Amino acid sequence: MKLGSNTKLKMPSGGSPGGRPERSDGDGNDGYGKPADMWSLGVVLYVMLSGMRAFDGDFKIEEKILRGLWDFDLPIWGKVSQAAKSLVSGLMTLDPKTRLSVDQVLEHVWLANAGS
């Protein structure tokens, strides 16, 4: 099956740490689609760059996700470039309408400078 630009996925991704902040609104908007995938990419990139989960600890993980309670406070982030942190921040933006798109990620300075 080929997914079009307006295709919305219907299968839940589970309750893993870093699940998307979008939720079903009861009007057929189930919160799945490219913006949710971009959020997941941000969560994976956060782990790859820091070796730590963005959402962890004593506080309820789901509430942390819904409120966007993550940061770059760990010492490891001092060794990560501002461009990489900018990409993670853009991907882990709570509002799916302002979250980075696939095209914006591909044009992001961190990826554009990767070959130089």
UniProtKB/TrEMBL annotation:
<dbReference type="GO" id="GO:0005524">
    <property type="term" value="F:ATP binding"/>
</dbReference>
<feature type="domain" description="Protein kinase">
    <location>
        <begin position="1"/>
        <end position="111"/>
    </location>
</feature>
<dbReference type="InterPro" id="IPR000719">
    <property type="entry name" value="Prot_kinase_dom"/>
</dbReference>
<dbReference type="GO" id="GO:0004672">
    <property type="term" value="F:protein kinase activity"/>
</dbReference>
<feature type="region of interest" description="Disordered">
    <location>
        <begin position="1"/>
        <end position="32"/>
    </location>
</feature>
<dbReference type="InterPro" id="IPR011009">
    <property type="entry name" value="Kinase-like_dom_sf"/>
</dbReference>
<protein>
    <recommendedName>
        <fullName>Protein kinase domain-containing protein</fullName>
    </recommendedName>
</protein>
<dbReference type="Pfam" id="PF00069">
    <property type="entry name" value="Pkinase"/>
</dbReference>
